[in-house]
Each structure stands twice: as structure tokens, then as C-alpha cells.
Amino acid sequence: MVTVIGEELDLMIQIQTQSLPAQQWLERYRGKLPVFACVLGFTDTCLIPGISAAGKTPEDRRYTAIADAEFLVNGVQPQPNYPLPPLIAGASPVYISRAIVAGLDLPLFIFNAGLPIPPTVPHLNLGGMPAACLTTGTALPLEIVERLYQQGLIWGEKLATLAEESYIIIGECVVGGTTTALSLLTGLGIDALGKVNSSHPVCNHQQKTEIVDRGLAHLNLPLSPLELVSAIGDPMQIVVAGMAISASRTSGVLLAGGTQMLAVAALIQAIGLDQGLEINMAQIVVGTTAWVANDRSGDTVALAQLIPQIPLISTQLSFANSQYPQLQVYEQGFVKEGVGAGGLAIAASLYQNWGQAELLDSIEQLLGESLLNPHAAS
Q: Is residue 316 a part of any domain in this protein?
């Protein structure tokens, strides 16, 4: 069941699950300026041919997160260090994210949870490392996962102090991350098969399932949540879980993403049970795009319903009437989400009451500027 909130926002924000707590969260943070944290990570899972459309080739996908971070911070530059990589179709979701961050002048923090190459923009290095392919069953050393979890707890608390009486948006960029999300969800005992999304127009469920099965075959379940991330996860997941756990004690948290953030939501709850932590679930929501929420090749809403206490909400941003074919293909199922795009669009509507016209205009202006610069994307 889908419900909507308020006259001003009823066209732009929809509640997909858990209507009452979602409504209460939205009303609590209406008109508040959030803080945006974007957590970058890498998994060798993304190098599997065909696993992701976030970069045409495996080599392109090595640099997606670094290029996205550079564009998120700097916008269009005449000579970027890392141009946005070509996609199979469409424009990167970082155009959505950058347009909103710049338009709202949001406080922005970039975190390196584990990349093969450090970002070229100011960032916070959390002492992580890229994950091995989840098929190995040894994605990350457990001591690295424990370090990243502690760093997430520390930074969640720090960010919450900056978002006094407001909330933090936590986005991510991990290519191949919907596959590590499926592995994490499955390892936690959640029936996520056939429900996750991907950057492809039709989700590659069979490929994802085969990869996850290969990873899980190495394990003797059940494992603790941190052990599970160590075996078949990626470095972003545990950082964001830690951030959300500590930040939710004093501020709101919007986990900005689809399948990947639903997996983090499940991880948060599993850590709470495993460690006997009191987590303020009423402060946490997952926010995504309509392209994810309505994706017929997955079942995001059904997946969210399997993760109790944390609502799923979505922006109704549409590119159906865009003048740019690079944006129109979102309506065909390409790209869908990333770099916090859905959560940021929700925040723009919640903070400044941006509607379809304001969102589309800001994104198209940025894309138009980029298309005039041949070096902005490769």
C-alpha cells in the first residue's frame, strides 16, 4: 500500500512501507537542512563481466566511485582528473546528487571506506580496503570490518552533532553493490532472491544468485553480522551501519539508496540483536527513487516489508518529459539510483519544497553544462 504526505509534498514523496512511522519521520524533519555523507567503497565483484551497468567495462567500473566523488564535489570541470565513465545507457545518478547538493548548499562529507585509488577531492580515509570478490567467501579481513564499524560509530556521532535537530543523509557509491547486498541479505536469513534491483533495465537475478551461492558455499552459517560482512560483503555496508546506529541516538538518518541501503537496514537490526544494542529505529528511514520502488524486474517494496521497523519512502522525480535522452532512459529502467540520488531528491522536497519542475530544471541545467564540456565524461 502506498500513502502520501501533506498537500505540498503529496506529488513528490511517497511512503512505500510502514506508513505511520514514515509519516512521523517526514513531519519531524520537514523544513530541516540535512548533512550529506557519501561513503565510497569497492568490491572486486564489480569486475565480473555483465554484473553491473555502472560503467561499460570492468576497467571503467574501477574508477566509477572516484569519478562520482570528484563530480559530486566539483561539478563540471574543464579537465577532471577522472571523467565520469561511460555507462551502458544514460547519465550517472551523480548528476541528480550534485544538482541538489549545489542547489541546497548541503554540508557534504566524502568517506573512503575502501577504494583501490584514493579520491581526488577532500575526503576522510577510514582505513579500509577494497573487498575481494564475494565468491571467495573472504571478502575482507575481520579486523578491517571491525575497524570500519568503529569508524562508522565515531563519524555517525560527529555528523549528528552537525545535524542538530535535523538529520543526516547517508549515500553510497559501490559498483556491484546490489550483488553484495543480496549476499548480505541472504546470509542474514532474509528471502531476497528475485527482489533486489540492479543498474540494468531488467535485473540479472540468475547471475547474482549464482555468484551469491558460490560465496555462501564457503560459509558455515549462521555467522555474526560482522563476520558475514567480512565473508561476503563490501566495506561501505559496515561503515554506514555504524554511522546510522550512532547518529540515530541524537538525529534522524535517511539511508539514501535502494537494495544496498535495505541490506544495510537489515545489518543494523542484526547488529542490534547480536550486540544487545538499543537502536532508535524510529529515527531511521530508507529513501530511494521511484525507478527503484516501481522496478518490475525486482520487488523492492516486498523486500522492505521483510525488514521491520525501518520504512521505505521514495521520491516521485520523473524524467519522462526530459529534453535529454540520457535522462529519459531512466524511465526504461536504466541506472535507477546511486550516490544518494533518491534520498537527496526527497530532502530537496522536504527542505525547500522542490517539486518536479525545480528538480528537473536543476538536473537538466547541470547535464546541459556537462554536455558542452567534452572532458566532463569519457
A: yes
What global pTM score does this model have?
Answer: 0.96
What domain range is 120 assigned to? 3-371
Instruction: Report phi then psi at 45, rounded to 5.
Output: -55, -30
Q: What is the DSSP letter of 43?
A: B
CATH number at residue 110: 3.40.50.10210
Q: How many CB atoms lie within 10 A of CB 191?
A: 11
Q: What is the pLDDT of residue 9?
A: 56
Percent of the chain with pLDDT over 70: 96
Rounded Cα–Cα distance for residues 128 and 229 (Å): 13
Q: How many domains does the chain have?
A: 1
190 inside domain: yes
Indicate the pairing of strand 3-4 with strand 284-289: unpaired
Provide the 3-class DSSP secondary structure of residue 377: strand
Distance, in Å, from the CA atom of 288 to the CA atom of 86, rounded to the nearest integer, reads: 23
Contact 85, 55 (CB under 8 A): yes
Residues in CB range of 72: below 8 A, 6 or more apart: 38, 94, 97, 98, 101, 108, 110, 121, 339
pLDDT digit string (tens) for 69-88? 999 999 999 999 999 988 88
Enumerate residues 6+ apart whose C-beta is below 8 A from 21: 282, 285, 309, 311
Q: What is the DSSP string of 231-292?
A: HH--HHHHHHHHHHHHHTTTSEEEEE-SHHHHHHHHHHHHHHHHHT----GGGEEEEEEHHH
Q: Which of 16-20, 118-122, 203-207 has the lowest mean pLDDT?
A: 203-207
Rounded Cα gap, residues 368 and 332, in angstroms: 21
Residues 6+ apart with CB under 8 A from 3: 14, 15, 19, 23
Average predicted confidence (pLDDT) for the chain: 94
Give tens-digit pLDDT for 320-332: 999 999 999 999 9
Residue 378 lies in a domain: no
What percentage of the chain's residues is helix, strand, coil (to nearest 5)? 45, 10, 40
Q: Please indicate, yes or no, if residue 376 is contained in any of the structural domains.
A: no
Are 189 and 267 within 8 A, CB to CB? Answer: no
Q: Which three cell numbers stand for residue 308?
A: 521491520
Q: Is the dihedral of CA 188, 225, 265, 273 positive or negative?
A: positive
